[in-house]
Amino acid sequence: MKIERVELRKIRLPYVTPFETSGWREDGSYAVIVRVDAAGITGWGESPVGSSPFYNEENTNTVWTIQQDFLVPMLLQADLQGPEDVPPAFARVRGNRMAKAGLEFAVWDLFGKLQGRSLKEMLGGTRDRVPVGVSVGIQKDIDTLIRVVGNYLEEGYRRIKLKIRPGWDIEPTRAVRNTWPDLMLQVDANSIYHLSDAEHLARLDEFNLLLIEQPLEHDDIFDHAKLKPHLKTPLCLDESIVSPAHARWAIEMQACDIINIKPSRIGGFVDAKRIHDMAQEAGMPVWHGGMLETGIGRAANVALASLPNFSLPGDISANARYFARDIVHNPFTLNEDSTLTVPTAPGCGAEVDEAYLDEVTVERWEMRA
Ligand SMILES: CSCC[C@@H](NC(=O)CCC(=O)O)C(=O)O
Ligand SMILES: [Mg+2]
């Protein structure tokens, strides 16, 4: 099948509160929303990039350029038997995985609608609900942090992730642990530390954390393997794992105990599923990360998180955690057991609110076959 039309949109969708990590602060979604059309069917996808290239090497503008100049023409050329044919069509383009992923997601959604199959079914999901938690950004002080965490626990979330950085790591984590001794708690450093911080990072071991996420450089596996023996807490990689090859290197080098899987970081579902399966083979648990997606990317994430080796709560909160109003008519709401319900509708299950999407679109582009 040939894709007949591709439409890209830059959006501005404000977060209910800004989100701060060790390296940047973002006030809203600057994602690129992808629409593909063929045979009278529309598929939707999202490249969940930020305004700056601070999480990985991509941002709104790199996605916008690479999609328009290379990936969309390649996609329109391709004769697709299924969404698995999308990555080979993009193979000549190095990196730019969020740009690739947004387009691939949209083609998965399209084929699901064409075949009457949910994304969960297409990907091999086994769960009807997926356990989720909340990622809590860096706060102005510890009292505020305790209040913010308390509010999320009130809402019913059972797992909390804290962003940390030098000067905001041991004491905030201690304060949360002391307030909630039995809480499922983990931390994410977003690559801000170095191997020389090993002893300092080992101080986090006293807090009985589920994991320490991506403490060292965003493109490192070797030093994480050297760090791991210093830690009792399980070590999780996020930014470093951008392909099945990276996952194999990390597993074989014993560089981590757990992998955070984000199909956007990895370039799409095909390779994300490969990493899920490799980790399962190796007896390594994975959990689903988040990139503050709108309801379009969020639905894609929930579908993937329904696969069997996703064994720790994911960073896939209800849409309202970020958006007062989302670009979908059917936002996720948190179930009483701190899970989200996996959509069963054909495709990703997101019902796009096109009128509101138009309102939050700041730039639009399209290309036809
Ligand atoms: C703006 S990029 C945020 C990347 C960060 N993501 C989260 O903390 C989860 C955010 C979410 O709730 O989607 C991570 O490194 O895991
Ligand atoms: Mg992370």
From TrEMBL:
Keyword presence, Metal-binding: yes
Cofactor dependence: a divalent metal cation
GO terms assigned for molecular function: metal ion binding; O-succinylbenzoate synthase activity; racemase and epimerase activity
Keywords (A to Z) from UniProt: Lyase, Magnesium, Metal-binding
Top EC class for this record: lyase
Record carries keyword Transcription regulation: no
Protein name: o-succinylbenzoate synthase
Annotated source species: Litorilinea aerophila
